[in-house]
Write a structure and sequence with these properties.
homodimer, 5-stranded parallel β-sheet, 4-stranded antiparallel β-sheet, DNA-binding, OmpR/PhoB-type_DNA-bd (chains A, B)
Amino acid sequence: MNTTRSGRPALTRPDGTPLRVLVVDDDPDLAEVLSGALRYEGWQVRSAGDGASALTEARELMPDAVVLDVMLPDTDGFAVLRSLHTVKPDVCVLFLTARDAVEDRIAGITAGGDDYVTKPFSLEEVVARVRGLLRRAGMARQLDEGPRLTVGDLVMDEDSHEVTRAGELIELSPTEFELLRFLMRNPRRVLSKAQILDRVWSYDFGGRAHVVELYISYLRKKVDAGREPMIHTVRGAGYVLKPVTP
Amino acid sequence: MNTTRSGRPALTRPDGTPLRVLVVDDDPDLAEVLSGALRYEGWQVRSAGDGASALTEARELMPDAVVLDVMLPDTDGFAVLRSLHTVKPDVCVLFLTARDAVEDRIAGITAGGDDYVTKPFSLEEVVARVRGLLRRAGMARQLDEGPRLTVGDLVMDEDSHEVTRAGELIELSPTEFELLRFLMRNPRRVLSKAQILDRVWSYDFGGRAHVVELYISYLRKKVDAGREPMIHTVRGAGYVLKPVTP
DNA sequence: CGAACTTCTCAGGACCCTCTGAACCGGGGG
DNA sequence: CCCCCGGTTCAGAGGGTCCTGAGAAGTTCG
């Protein structure tokens, strides 16, 4: 069976081969980071720096999904989208757009089921969105069923953003939600504060690791409140999320 | 079973194969957006930019429905319609027309069971109209029953435009109706303001996402008034419609 | 032509989220 | 015993998101 570098079972194409993703961004550092994060999911990744090479790469790779910066040196996102669809009509696209350019020309982009995130984003968010796109497109053979993430009696529905523990509803802020999602996707594994910071916080975040401790404390209050704790501290190493009865 | 990219069961042809739709518009951006929205419904879509290529595409695709711009560079929509009918006599047509265009000529055409929408339109509207055309033509085997949409005790009849909650009639303005329809077609799923804007508002709308908040507030006053709320805000993410008892 | 309605902009304000700084806590080592 | 260290928690500033009311412009309809 196909497994990710992270040890989790990979989300694969219906025929069992790894999902193929193309990353298009003119900032090579960002493209590299994104590629790394997606490759970590066990997917086959290639990247391009402009619209023209994006097309040639797409023709070769025949990607299931494309992560596409809207601002490219040669063409605009809409034109690339059109050409991509002529190459592979059922391709999913996740657009990356600058916060201040928001809404200026997103019109219609999400209409086809495609999605977008605004810069600066967190890697966890991008990965989650791509997964969501592929899942909804029926492109991914889901090894776990549906949009549900389960660890012990803790359940997260990624579509409705609902989180319950032992059936009780838990209200979370956006950052709390993303942090918990990251923990739940890596259960029984110690995650260092640096790792968490890299994945859950946006790449331009300047703050210290102290926020992670803070948000872990918030989560404990909501998730572990009065119950058998699932979030554990490993001194000098990081944090683990574990079901109460392994 | 054939499912849409949105996860809903697809509206299929009587023999179970996906419905086939041809989009004809000379604005490539608009054609792209329309194709995307229709493809998202699980239908097989092709597009053309003028009357001549529309015919060749039609001969190949044998579409069940055609979305047809009345103003084309080479011929006018009515000529195309006539040729289409020689290719496939029982094809349904949804005309796209400018607001100030001659509506009386259109009126004659729609007598034949065809329909039209005026530019600028919302994607939700176009998709709903095409669905309606096919349903009425008996072209579509309806997997869910009829023109009725139900979420909890909230019921919408798409044909009569009647909406009731717990049997009580709710009066809605056109925009409120379309917004609610979009929510009801995607229950238990967080919809971002951008997503809603792309789908429910016309493609040329220049305003900000703030209107969505406003209309959600209107809907709440009518749908949730004094009752257990069904419309929920997910801060930083969007809105969800959920039945009170899942 | 006027009335009712619909849509959208604007502005005020409430509330929530995030992050900083500092106090606190408990264990281990000097 | 005291101090250091990693971790936890509290309090609060500031910034942002979201809600709502008022009203202007446009549209529909009698």
